[in-house]
């Protein structure tokens, strides 16, 4: 609380000093407008991309894109309700896909995707249309309306199912025409946060996070079936490639995989699957550059679990020194442990190991969650995930610019999970990095 009090006092002193400062001398009209013009140019130069120099046909391409963007902005200025970025993404997905700006961006080369999580790699359509129609997929349907999935040879009575029907073969349910449509509709709904009224369905950040995490609780037992996981990852690479993304840095918890014979596969085997599947994809698509792996277990850990994480990470680095490139912690920051708890353990990691840390993914100020940014920068993080609380930590922002620490910005993710609308999205995109 003392830190917050001093911030308030400093703000009051700053405001008081600003109010008491004498005004600058007025200038002539010519000087004023010349000064204003220089001001706009200087401001543009320090904004993101302000110092880029176009080559060949790049300026013409940029002009086409900017014309489409400016048309949308102009229409939104006249009618704010028509401005898609200001509305909840879950309600305007189809309109975004139909916009001129999106259709131009869709065709453009993207370079690299540096912030993607393992079980959020493909479209929900692929999971539903491909994976849920595979043989040997059983489902448990508890009374609360949720679904539990598992691949198996036969229904295993030893595995608890909170349903009077027990484990049921999904193919048999679909063969029953009286319930097929209802079952498929509910499965689709369980794989997405799209609802008619997101504000009502997700009234606060905790509710939104629960809904978000429930998606992965539902699909992960399907995805972690060994043959499916390999196909899922390959499909994820293909969908990125189809969007003109040519390089991926994937964050993975390295979940335990299983097969129908009861075998389980740990972090080393899962990392090897990623590496070998990537090599197969590159062989089939030679212009795809490749993938690197960031080990990213859950941040809601105790000291013993963190020791296990770092032991696993060391083993991964030893086995795959050119493939496993860094470490992160994932999950809702407000509910997880702050980075400060694990600083000594993380500092003990070899300086040659890079940290790619989720930090500052919060609206709060003066609490352990936004202060994760301080620990991220002091731990020499290579990149910071989300980090929109940077605007409340100007010294961290200054050091991020000075040290060229990239900020991984994803306004759609922030708006969808945190439901704080265009205000925070605008604040995020206003961050200026030279």
TrEMBL record:
Domain Adenosine deaminase: 209-415
Pfam families: A_deaminase, A_deaminase_N
UniProt keyword Iron-sulfur, yes or no: no
Highest taxon, organism lineage: Eukaryota
GO biological process, one term: inosine biosynthetic process
Cofactor(s) named in the record: Zn(2+)
Cellular component GO terms held in the UniProt record: extracellular space
Keywords assigned: Hydrolase, Metal-binding, Secreted, Signal
EC numbers for this chain: 3.5.4.4
MF (Gene Ontology): adenosine deaminase activity; metal ion binding
Enzyme class label: hydrolase
Signal peptide location: 1-20
Subcellular location: Secreted
Annotated catalysed reactions: adenosine + H2O + H(+) = inosine + NH4(+)
Keyword hit for Cell inner membrane: no
SUPFAM superfamilies: Metallo-dependent hydrolases
Domain Adenosine/AMP deaminase N-terminal as annotated: residue spans: 25-105
Family of the protein in this entry: Belongs to the metallo-dependent hydrolases superfamily. Adenosine and AMP deaminases family. ADGF subfamily.
Protein name as annotated: Adenosine deaminase
UniProt organism field: Neodiprion lecontei (Redheaded pine sawfly)
């Amino acid at each position: 609380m003392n830190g917050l009090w001093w911030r308030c006092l400093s703000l009051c002193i700053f405001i008081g000093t600003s109010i008491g400062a004498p005004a600058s001398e007025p200038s002539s009209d010519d000087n004023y407008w010349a000064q204003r013009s220089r001001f706009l140019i200087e401001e543009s130069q320090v904004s993101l991309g302000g110092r880029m120099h176009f080559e060949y046909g790049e300026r013409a391409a940029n002009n086409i894109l900017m014309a489409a963007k400016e048309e949308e902005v102009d229409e939104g200025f006249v009618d704010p309700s028509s401005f898609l970025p200001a509305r909840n993404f879950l309600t305007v997905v189809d309109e975004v896909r139909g916009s001129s700006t999106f259709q131009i961006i869709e065709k453009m080369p993207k370079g690299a995707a540096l912030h993607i999580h393992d079980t959020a790699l493909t479209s929900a359509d692929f999971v539903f249309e491909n994976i849920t129609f595979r043989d040997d997929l059983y489902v448990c349907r508890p009374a609360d309306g949720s679904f539990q999935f598992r691949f198996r040879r036969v229904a295993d009575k030893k595995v608890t199912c909170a349903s009077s029907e027990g484990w049921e073969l999904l193919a048999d349910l679909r063969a029953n025409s009286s319930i097929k449509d209802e079952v498929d509709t509910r499965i689709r709904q369980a794989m997405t946060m799209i609802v008619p009224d997101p504000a009502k369905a997700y009234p606060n950040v905790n509710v939104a996070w629960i809904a978000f995490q429930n998606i992965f609780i539902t699909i992960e037992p399907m995805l972690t079936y060994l043959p499916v996981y390999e196909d899922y990852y390959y499909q994820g690479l293909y969908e990125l490639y189809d969007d003109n993304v040519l390089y991926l840095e994937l964050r993975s918890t390295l979940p335990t995989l299983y097969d129908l014979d009861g075998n389980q596969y740990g972090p080393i085997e899962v990392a090897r699957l990623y590496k070998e599947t990537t090599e197969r994809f590159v062989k089939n698509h030679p212009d795809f550059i490749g993938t690197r792996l960031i080990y990213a277990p859950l941040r809601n850990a105790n000291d013993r679990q963190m020791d296990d994480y770092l032991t696993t990470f060391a083993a991964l680095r030893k086995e795959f020194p050119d493939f496993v490139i860094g470490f992160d912690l994932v999950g809702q920051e407000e509910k997880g442990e702050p980075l400060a708890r694990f600083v000594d353990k993380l500092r003990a990691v070899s300086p040659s190991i890079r940290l790619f840390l989720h930090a500052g993914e919060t609206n709060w100020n003066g609490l352990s969650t936004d202060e994760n940014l301080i620990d991220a920068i002091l731990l020499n993080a290579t990149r910071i995930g989300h980090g929109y609380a940077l605007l409340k930590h100007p010294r961290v922002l200054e050091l991020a610019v000075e040290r060229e620490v990239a900020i991984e910005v994803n306004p759609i993710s922030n708006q969808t999970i945190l439901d704080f609308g265009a205000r925070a999205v605008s604040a995020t995109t206003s961050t200026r990095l030279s």
